[in-house]
Design a protein that fits this description.
It is a single chain. The chain has 4 domains: 176 residues, P-loop containing nucleotide triphosphate hydrolases (Rossmann fold), CATH 3.40.50; 81 residues, Helicase, Ruva Protein, domain 3 (Orthogonal Bundle), CATH 1.10.8; 113 residues, Cathepsin B, Chain A (Alpha-Beta Complex), CATH 3.90.70; 51 residues, no CATH class. 43% of the residues lie in helices and 13% in strands. It contains 22 helices and 11 strands. About 12% of the residues have low confidence.
C-alpha cells in the first residue's frame, strides 16, 4: 500500500532475486565477471579449454542468487546449463538431478535400478556429443555449503570427463562463507587445487548502501530526493551491516511504517521501530543499547525491591482494598461491552493479531454499516442501513483510493475493506488511530491491531456515513448558489481565519475565486486539486472545522 504514497509503481524492496534490481557495486561487477569467466573457459567458440571449478561465496543475503540469475541471462546460446538449487542430495541423487537438468535420458536398453555408473556414462556421452557439436556445458550448484564431502569428491571426478584437448564440464559453486572452510579441509585438497577462480562477495559500504537504496527506488519508479533522512540512512547501514537482503527487509518495513503514520520522510525513529519488527531484539545490539539495557536492569532490580516492600505493606490491608492485577484488569475490560458505565479511565483495548480476528470480521458490508450506525444515532436493526440513513439526511459514502494520511485527516469512524489473496473481502470497523495502531470495534468490543499488519490487507477502500450540505448535488457547475455553497464558503473562511462569508452583501456563488480557494484546500489536504467540491472535499472540510460528526479516538481506549 505504501507504493502509491511514495510515488512508486511497485515494491522496491522485495527480497525476490529479480535481476532488474541488481545493484552492480564494484564487488558485484567483479563477482559477475568471475562467473562469466567460468563460462568463457568452458566455451569452445571462445577458445576456452574448460574444466575446473569457479567459486562464489558471500554472507546470507549478500546477493549471490541475484547475481546468479543475472549471470544465467548472459550465458551464450551454445552453452548447456544445469542449475541445482537444492544440493542436499546423495551422490546418486545428484547425478540423477544433473542428468535431468541437462535433459539426459538413460539408454532404452537399460533395465533395473540405475547406478552411479549408469548416470556417469550417460552424462559423458552427452558431453562428448555436445563437444562434437561445438557446444559447452556448465553445472551451477547454489547453496553449495550443503554439499557433503562424498558429493564434492564426486563433483571433482566429473571434471575428469575430457577429451585430449579440453575438459568437458565447467562447475560453478555458489555458497556461504563456510564453503571456503570446507574446501580448506585436507581431504578436499585435490578439489581445492582445481578452483580456477574464486571470489567472496562482501557487504556494502555506507556509501554503497545509500546508492543501493536509491537504485532500487529508481527502478520502482521513484524520482526526486530519497524518502530517507541522512540519519535514518546511517542507521539503516548500521543495523543491516550493508547486507542487501537485510536492507530490503528493513527499508520495506520502514516505508510501511512511514506510510502508516502519514509522513513522507523516514527518520531514525521510524527505522528503529521497523528494525524491532523485522530483526527483533537483534536490532538493539549496539554499545549504547547494551549500556541502556544495563541501566534498565539496575532500575528493574530497584523497582523489584520497592514492589516487594510495597507488597509486604499491602498484605496487612483489608480484603476490600485489593485490586485486580494488570492482567486481570485487562481481561475484565476486554469482556466488558463498549459503553459500560465506569468512573475510571478505561484500560487500553487489548492488542490482537489481525489474523486471529479475521474469522470474526463480517463478510457482509451491511453488517459493518449496522455496527457503525450507533455513532450516528441510527437504528442498528435495519435490513438496509443506507436506506434508513437516507431517511435521516445521511448518505452512505464509499471510496476506493484513500491513503493512510487522508484517513487520518478525515478523522471519522468508518469501514475498511480488507482483502487477502484468493479470499473474499471482509469488513473492519475503524474507530481509532494512534501512531502505530488502529482500534477496531467488533461486536461492541474494541480490539487494537498494528498498522503494519492492517496495511497488508487494506488497499484504500473506506466507507462512512456523510451528512451532505443542503442543496448539494454532484458536479456543481460554475455560478452555483444556495446553502451548500454558503456552507462551503463559510467553512473555508473559518479555515483561512478571515471574516465570515455569511456576512457578504451579495449572494455567494461558486465562482473562480471560490474554486481557487477550494483548490488550495485540496492541495493542502492531499486531494486532487481540481477545484470541484466533491464528497471527499466536503468531508475533509467538515473534519478540519468544529462540528458534530463522530471522530476517531486518538489512542486505544
Amino acid at each position: 500500500m505504501y507504493t502509491a504514497h511514495f510515488g512508486l509503481s511497485q515494491d522496491p524492496f522485495s527480497i525476490a532475486p529479480d535481476p532488474r534490481y541488481l545493484f552492480m557495486s564494484e564487488r558485484h561487477r567483479e563477482a559477475l565477471a568471475h562467473l562469466l569467466y567460468g563460462v568463457a573457459g568452458s566455451n569452445q567458440a571462445a577458445g576456452g579449454t574448460g574444466g575446473g571449478f569457479v567459486l562464489l561465496t558471500g554472507d546470507i543475503g549478500a546477493g549471490k542468487t541475484t547475481i546468479c540469475r543475472c549471470f544465467l541471462a548472459q550465458i551464450p546460446p551454445n552453452c548447456h546449463v544445469a542449475y541445482i538449487f537444492n544440493p542436499k542430495l546423495s551422490v546418486l541423487e545428484l547425478l540423477q538431478s544433473i542428468c535431468e537438468e541437462f535433459h539426459i535420458t538413460l539408454s532404452p536398453a537399460h533395465t533395473g535400478t540405475p547406478t552411479v555408473k549408469d548416470y556417469i556414462d550417460a552424462l559423458n556421452a552427452f558431453l562428448l556429443q555436445s563437444h562434437a557439436a561445438g557446444q559447452s556445458s556448465v553445472l551451477i550448484i547454489d547453496e553449495a555449503q550443503n554439499l557433503s564431502p562424498e558429493v564434492l569428491e564426486q563433483l571433482r571426478l566429473l571434471t575428469n570427463l575430457e577429451t585430449s584437448e579440453r575438459k568437458l564440464l565447467q562447475i560453478v559453486l555458489i555458497g556461504q562463507p563456510e564453503l571456503r572452510d570446507m574446501l580448506a579441509r585436507p581431504e578436499l585438497e585435490q578439489l581445492a587445487q582445481r578452483v580456477i577462480a574464486r571470489f567472496h562477495l562482501d557487504a556494502l559500504s555506507p556509501a554503497e548502501t545509500k546508492q543501493y537504496i536509491g537504485h532500487r527506488l529508481g527502478v520502482a519508479g521513484h524520482s526526486g530526493a530519497l524518502p530517507f533522512e541522512p540519519q535514518a540512512m546511517q542507521r539503516i547501514h548500521q543495523l543491516t551491516r550493508g547486507v542487501p537482503r537485510r536492507i530490503n527487509l528493513l527499508c520495506g518495513r520502514a516505508l510501511l511504517g512511514a506510510w502508516a503514520t502519514g509522513v513522507n520522510q523516514v527518520n531514525r525513529k521510524v527505522v528503529n521501530k521497523a528494525a524491532a519488527e523485522v530483526f527483533g531484539t537483534e536490532a538493539g545490539y549496539t554499545p549504547n543499547f547494551k549500556r541502556q539495557r544495563l541501566d534498565y536492569g539496575l532500575a528493574g532490580l530497584a523497582l523489584l525491591a520497592a514492589l516487594t516492600l510495597l507488597g509486604l505493606q499491602l498484605g496487612s490491608t483489608s480484603k476490600e482494598s485489593q485490586v485486580l492485577s494488570p492482567t486481570a484488569a485487562q481481561t475484565a475490560q476486554a469482556a466488558a461491552p463498549i459503553g459500560a458505565a465506569s468512573t475510571d479511565k478505561p484500560e487500553p483495548a487489548p492488542m490482537a493479531e489481525l489474523q486471529t480476528l479475521w474469522p470474526q470480521l463480517p463478510g457482509d458490508i451491511n453488517t459493518a454499516w449496522r455496527e457503525l450506525a450507533p455513532d450516528w444515532k441510527l437504528p442498528t436493526n435495519s435490513t438496509d442501513p443506507c436506506q434508513v440513513a437516507a431517511a435521516q439526511q445521511l448518505q452512505c459514502y464509499r471510496t476506493s483510493n484513500l491513503t493512510m494520511p487522508l484517513l487520518r485527516q478525515l478523522d471519522r469512524p468508518g469501514i475498511l475493506t480488507l482483502q487477502a489473496a484468493q479470499s473474499p473481502a471482509v469488513y473492519a470497523l475503524l474507530v481509532g488511530l494512534s501512531d502505530q495502531t488502529a482500534t477496531l470495534r467488533l461486536d461492541g468490543h474494541l480490539r487494537t491491531v498494528r498498522l503494519v499488519d492492517l496495511a497488508q490487507w487494506w488497499r484504500g477502500d473506506f466507507a462512512t456515513y456523510w451528512q451532505q450540505p443542503t442543496g448539494y448535488t454532484a458536479g456543481l457547475p460554475d455560478g452555483s448558489t444556495g446553502p451548500a455553497i454558503d456552507w462551503l464558503a463559510s467553512r473555508l473562511a473559518l479555515l483561512d481565519g478571515g471574516p465570515s462569508a455569511s456576512n457578504a452583501a451579495t449572494p455567494l456563488a461558486l465562482d473562480a475565486a471560490l474554486r481557487a480557494r477550494v483548490r488550495a484546500f485540496q492541495r493542502a489536504r492531499g486531494i486532487t486539486p481540481d477545484g470541484q467540491p466533491g464528497p471527499m472535499t466536503f468531508l475533509q472540510i467538515d473534519s478540519a472545522t468544529p462540528g458534530q460528526s463522530p471522530r476517531l479516538i486518538s489512542e486505544p481506549q
